[in-house]
Amino acid sequence: MSTLDLFSVTPSEAADLLPRRFRDWFASRGWAPREHQLALLAKAREQRSALLIAPTGAGKTLAGFLPTLVELSGETPGRKDSHLPLKGGGRHARGRDSATGRDGWGSAAGSEQTADPQPSPRPFRGRESDQLAGGEDAVVEQPRPSLISTGRSVRRSGGLHTLYISPLKALAVDIARNLETPVAEMGLPIRIETRTGDTPVSRRQRQRRYPPDILLTTPEQLALLLASDDAPYLFSSLKRIVLDELHALVTSKRGDLLSLGLARLWTIAPQMRAIGLSATVADPEQLARFLVPQPGGQSASADVVIAGGAAPPLVEMLDTRERLPWSGHSARHALPEVYELIKRNKTTLVFVNTRSQAEMLFQDLWRMNDDGLAIALHHGSLDVAQRRKVEDAMAAGKLRGVVCTSSLDLGVDWGDVDLVINIGAPKGSSRLMQRIGRANHRFDEASRAVLVPANRFEVLECRVAIDAIAENAQDTPPLRSGALDVLAQHVLGCACGEPFFSDELYAEVRTAAPYAALSRTDFDDVVDFVATGGYALKTYERFARIKQDKNGRWRVANPKVRQSYRLNVGTIVEETMLKVRLVRSRAGGSGSTGAIARGGRMLGEIEEVFIEGLVVGDTFVFGGEVVRYEALVEDQVYVSRANDKDAKVPSYMGGKFPLSTYLAERVRNLLDNSRAWNALPDQVHDWLSLQKRFSRVPALRELLVETFPRGGKHYLICYPFEGRLAHQTLGMLLTRRLERARARPLGFVANEYALAIWCVSDVPSMIRQGRLDLNALFDPDMLGDDLEAWLAESALMKRTFRNCAIISGLIARRFTDEEKSRRQVLFSTDLIYDVLRKHQADHVLLRAARGDAATGLLDLRRLGDMLSRIHGRITHKDLDHVSPLAVPALLEIGRESVYGEASDELLAEAAEELVREAMT
Amino acid sequence: MADVGFLADCSGALFWEEQRLLIVSDLHLEKGSSFASRGVLLPPYDTVATLSRLAAVIARHDPRQVIALGDSFHDRTAHERLSEADREVLAALQARRSWIWISGNHDPALPSDLGGVVATEVAIGPIVFHHEPTGRSGEIAGHLHPKARVPTRGRSIERRCFASDGERAVMPAFGAYTGGLSIRDAAFARVFGASTFMVHVLGDNRVHAFAASRCY
Prior knowledge:
The complex is a heterodimer of chains A (about 900) and B (about 220). Chain A has about 900 residues and is an alpha/beta fold. Chain A is built from 37 helices and 28 strands. Chain B is α/β, with parallel strands linked by helices and about 220 residues long. Chain B has a single domain (about 5-215), classed as Purple Acid Phosphatase, chain A, domain 2 (4-Layer Sandwich). In chain B, strands 7, 8, 9, 10, 11, 12, 13, 14 and 15 form a nine-stranded mixed beta sheet that branches. Chain B has a six-stranded mixed beta sheet with strand order 1-2-3-4-5-6, covered by helices on one side. Chain B is globular and about 45 Å long. Chains A and B meet through helix 23, strand 22, helix 33 and helix 37 of A and helix 1, helix 2, strand 10, strand 11 and strand 15 of B.
């Protein structure tokens, strides 16, 4: 049961919720508590968990912590002043009095001999108890933390009160810093600490023995804390967990891991309530399920509080004076205009979709930076220290512009950004709204944003995104169902803590929203996998990692297992990175062979998948300069300095996020409605009109398929508008079918909107003669046997499997020193995939990988939806030459990766090409 | 090679027609259980997979003799972990043909009860079979697990391969879990010296030849 409320709070109600000291503090700052901040206080008092939906700049973080600060202040709201005698030695008072202000906190945190905060020994309620079944409605008595003045210092018997979880460790550190201000200014007796991968071991140990009142950390650190036998001691006093940026956390496996941690906490600390902080999402009720234990068979949600009053953003599309490109993603045509915008505004964030795009744009902007504007670069591959420097300069108002990627989607507020520019496709309306929210973090002022489409198709996408924002239409994805590989990691973590019974852990795991529907079979298979690999061939009993004791409880078999778990916790599998080294070019000496000169200056690191897409001799931008790809030897990429001004490979790499289903639907609507084209720039309007005359503009529900000859080959192009990932999968499957139909496909290219396949055979005449039936070609049954056959060899599927193998703990990515000293353990997960698939196709890891494939790199679910939508609604246009709509896709050939699974064909073609080369 | 014609099978085996001799290298049997004993529970199906591929290629060529060119077992005790079923499969493959186990660095001390004979080196005519390549003329070796990445249209394909300059050859690893070493690694330069060499890349149904300098 939950309520959706927009609180309206009267001053007397505010007084009722906020103690005097807090009201005075707000007043001293010239602030009034916001409605949603008070709403969360009210929820906390009613012992309710709550989800706060608020845009950036709404004081979301303070809202999340206010209930904790009030409870820990020891004051009762509404009553007459009840200041506790802090005078005369409270360390927090010292902190406040000291001239250094926040530094006082730092020293306080390190002085536990004066603090001596000893948690009261609260009996741990055994897992046998069914407490959490009562869920939200069971009001657990919550003793107010008592403060005992020892005369020398503050002694509290409360233990850890509040846990704060952030997706970014930098964010946790920043929030801790921000939180110190009100705490110091109000002189609250509260100890705040952070715990991240960077926290020194001594401090970590102390945190376990003498927990702070508030601990700020990440999902991975929470998992580590839970995977120890003193977890009940540490967490049994917990009253609240605050989950920041929940909308971002729940879309990934990190969210699964966090949900399992929550389930653990509900058992250890049944009195704990959750506060979720989130940007606007499509379905708040769904998201609110994450915050409360799910009762078996039913669904429960936390209360939802929505902050109102944000001014709608002002978004426009750049009306370029230049010619709009047909394809590409660089938006180079509009750079002078982008530069003008940066110049005209105080601070501008320029968002692009990929790292390499950011690199290129940054370089181009510097080339035209005659005014010497302070423009910086920020993306995930940059060194952490470098990123922090940019962030600090930004916070200090020293920068005029920052070119950034999704690396800046999250993070603390910076106040003075007054314009957001989004280069390229917005991909999804919610994502775009969150980015736009980065401009002007004053809540009641409108954010300003300019969208810069990089090609004609992106104009359509920008147009519908602007409309969606005007309607405040959200397209965040639905809540995930929990991944089995993450569950495997959690089960091992549980065994590293207190021994567990399968029955009890199964019941506990199902209280986590993503795992509410987990079957017992899946659970048991996962436990079996953790123990002995889960193989039908039972030969690894003696190598078991977890074992049952005589009571049937599971525990780790030996300390090495625990050590390995600790090293490998987490669900973020980094791309394999290769080191880039600069060497002298060997392009001059023809026919040179042999090994390239080793050594060379290190330029940085680059994703392996990117290099795999290159051919020796290709040029690309790296670290701000154009380089030529020379060779790949082990984990080293050798490049030489290229004198070209432009890189041959724009290295777009597609970006991580495909066009959202929602925006795709709107794009199809826009195309279908030719009257709406008037709102589009003339160039785009003309382009669509030309397409209408020459071929056809796809109608809302149909799939348009065009065929035409070109350069001795026959092209088949279709326009599903389902995003690159789904199109790529469709391309793989269609080429298999076309091969069987003897159309002899050679390759295909997929972008966000279209898929183009080229064949040796005359496809249109095959269609005319009835030798190829388009309806049969696009029949949804391709997701049956064809899919299975393709999955057997798909590189994408193998990559998906690799991630599952790592997250589940089958394969370690980090080793203990002892293991490292032995020869590095390297084997190919591709080969393991091949063998496992052949000998135990229903193995739990393969099931996990298939689950990922449905929504991940292969986007199967979306492809399936599309195939059923267009079934029987295919329109074929038999053309003499390429259509206007097809041009962008064809221009991507040679830029985007071209696929063809028929490796023999490709290898043969490569061999022939080399022969030709040699003959001429 | 050295005036002897060899057939490079796309499974990774080499066949000498006149001698009806089949050579396979680096089977690495029981690699899975070897890792399992150290806590990495790789699927225990690698031996079955390797032996069934070996059975297929033997059925295809019906050799009179087989040479396993070293590192046939992943560790010193791996042969003890062979399942009863796998032993029987192996025995069936060895029936009616002579079988030579060349010892490698992973299996330097093979027992004599595996069927066939154990040797460190075998010479037949102008050809010498030896596990670790030394670079001498007429040598066929394994050990290095060569693989090559071939650039094709817009992407590259990486496969296991044979490497040879007509004087000496390095065979690909045959085992189901055996990874590879790029033919651009300095180890190959040491084997082939200054001479240019070819790679014979294992396709799905055929073997493709490239100049090594064209691959990476």
